[in-house]
Description:
Layout: E1 2-3, H1 10-24, H2 30-43, E2 46-51, E3 65-71, H3 74-78, E4 86-89, E5 102-108, H4 119-136, E6 137-149, H5 152-171, H6 182-192, E7 195-201, E8 211-212, E9 223-224, E10 231-238
Parallel strand pairs: 1-4, 2-3, 2-5, 3-4, 5-6
Antiparallel strand pairs: 6-10, 7-10, 8-9
Amino acid sequence: MVLFCVLDSPEGEFFDRHAESYHSARGGMSPFHEVTAGRIEEGLHGSVLSVGGLWNSARLSVPDYRLTVLDVSAEMLKRSAREGLELVQGDVRTTDFADGTFDHVVLPLVLHHVAGRNALTARRNVRGILVRVFRMLRPGGRVWISEFCVPRAVYAVEVALAPAVRWGLTLARIPLVVMHTSSFYESALGDAGFGEVCVEHVRPASELSRWIRPVIGLPWLRVPRWLYPVRPTLVTARRPFSSLRSG
Length: 247
């Protein structure tokens, strides 16, 4: 089942243009994605929402969950199509699902893309999304966040330079991206009402590529992996059974 709507979204327009290259490129981080996909799929059951397309290296080998995929990009959504999946075009910041709809919500490499105009907006957007995810989950439900996290020192520089970076990326028609620290996600999850927060820095399943393409939309830009200051991270948390958070 596919549900499409018209969206005015810079992220949607960007990924419509780059959907083919995004899905055709294996990328230097693929060994991490393989491990992360296994961790996620081992824990899923029941009703599952994946926001921003399927998680990288998804195998969908576990038969005991029902999967809905939400994405702002129609072209990206088409590439997530699998038999039995429900596809919904929409923005997690505005698309409403009934409270307590899902047993699991997966946020695969999506939260650094909801940056808006600056780092403050990026932090606010992430916090707002996690509050919405909390409501979507049934008591006892779990959120899975796959992200590239940065050290605190890099984060401080990134926050300070965000206006200039946004200006430069705008010239290339690329929306601002902000990579957060794992401690920020821990704090934001706690503030949203989640418990049992767990942070895992993912180790690769095989040897890494020596070169990384850090910016989607700039295929010519490559940096050595050892200079790319991110840590592939899987953050999980649970909505407490006793919590009835509202408002």
